[in-house]
């Protein structure tokens, strides 16, 4: 390699591995909470932590993952975040594809592990989870509140844009430093409380792909929306951040 690299800089393999493992942890934690502890399906979730518990699981998993893997890969764990950071000039476009692949792989493996756990449960546990969409995001029958496509798109675009805007703000020159993961995790918890009743709370195409693989025909049929809407939100946040916030005079 002719270009100079800091001697302790993580390798590409380490960065992609961190993204895969971090996304695995996020999906395993959040979808596991939804399937086993939130009462989303009949006979599931004896603890019944509800939407609040899932929102906290989401925020805490991102907070923990950011501290654990952020120093290696930046702690994206989400294609919408990666694309938003690239649009905001904080991440190289040439590295986007590798991150997206690592995130999707990590998410799908996590969902597969959860499916394996369900398969070892009571008779029909996996079929029951699949019948309920495997906590997949979507509209109509996949929306906990029965919201339609328009509401789904509006909720996912806006909440993802808010989330990525906060990430760009707290990790920037005027940002929160080592406290950034706390702000990011709490932001995700707050927007999840808004979005879960409407969309089941995606903000993350990797998470949506992972659950749709095991969620049945409806989940797969609606997956395009759970990919497009968060990406649109992330790109909006990325493209407007620099002119809106970093272009202000000191």
CATH topology: Glycerol uptake facilitator protein
- How many separate helices? 10
> So what's the CATH class?
Mainly Alpha
| SS-based class | mainly alpha
CATH superfamily: Glycerol uptake facilitator protein
Question: CA-to-CA gap between the ends?
Answer: 39 Å
Strand count, sense and closure of the main sheet?
A: none
Helix content: 55-70%
Report what the structure shows.
Helix 1 (12-36) runs parallel beside helix 4 (96-119) and helix 6 (149-170) packs parallel to helix 10. The radius of gyration is 18 Å and the shape is globular. It is an all-alpha fold. The termini are far apart. The protein contains ten helices and no strands. The protein has a single domain, classed as Glycerol uptake facilitator protein, CATH 1.20.1080.
List the helices and strands and how they pair.
Layout: H1 12-36, H2 50-73, H3 79-87, H4 96-119, H5 125-131, H6 149-170, H7 180-199, H8 205-215, H9 217-221, H10 223-246
Helix pairs in contact: 1-2, 1-4, 1-8, 2-7, 3-4, 3-6, 3-10, 4-8, 6-7, 6-10, 8-10
Précis, in short:
Belongs to the MIP/aquaporin (TC 1.A.8) family. The chain has helices at residues 12-36, 50-73, 79-87, 96-119, 125-131, 149-170, 180-199, 205-215, 217-221, 223-246. With 250 residues, the chain is mainly alpha-helical.
What are the defining features of this structure?
Aquaporin_transptr; globular; 250 residues; Aquaporin; membrane; 10 helices; Glycerol uptake facilitator protein; mainly alpha
């Amino acid at each position: 390699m002719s270009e100079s690299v800091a001697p302790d800089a993580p390798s590409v393999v380490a960065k992609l591995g961190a993204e895969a493992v971090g996304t695995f942890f996020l999906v395993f934690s959040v979808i596991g909470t939804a399937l086993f502890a939130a009462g989303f399906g009949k006979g599931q979730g004896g603890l019944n932590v509800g939407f609040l518990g899932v929102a906290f699981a989401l925020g805490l998993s991102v907070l923990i993952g950011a501290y654990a893997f952020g120093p290696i890969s930046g702690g994206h764990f989400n294609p919408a975040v990666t694309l938003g950071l690239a649009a905001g000039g904080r991440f190289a476009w040439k590295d986007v594809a590798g991150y997206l692949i690592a995130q999707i792989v990590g998410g799908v493996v996590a969902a597969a592990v959860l499916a394996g756990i369900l398969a070892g449960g009571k008779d029909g546990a996996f079929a029951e989870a699949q019948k309920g969409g495997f906590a997949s995001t979507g509209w109509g029958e996949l929306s906990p509140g029965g919201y339609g496509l328009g509401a789904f798109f509006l909720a996912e675009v806006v909440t993802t844009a808010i989330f990525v805007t906060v990430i760009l703000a707290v990790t920037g020159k005027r940002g929160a430093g080592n406290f950034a993961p706390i702000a990011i995790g709490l932001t995700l918890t707050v927007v999840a409380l808004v979005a879960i009743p409407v969309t089941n709370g995606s903000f993350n195409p990797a998470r949506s792909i992972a659950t749709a693989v095991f969620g049945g025909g409806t989940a797969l049929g609606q997956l395009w929306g759970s990919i497009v809407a968060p990406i649109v939100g992330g790109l909006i946040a990325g493209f407007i951040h620099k002119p809106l916030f970093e272009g202000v005079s000191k």
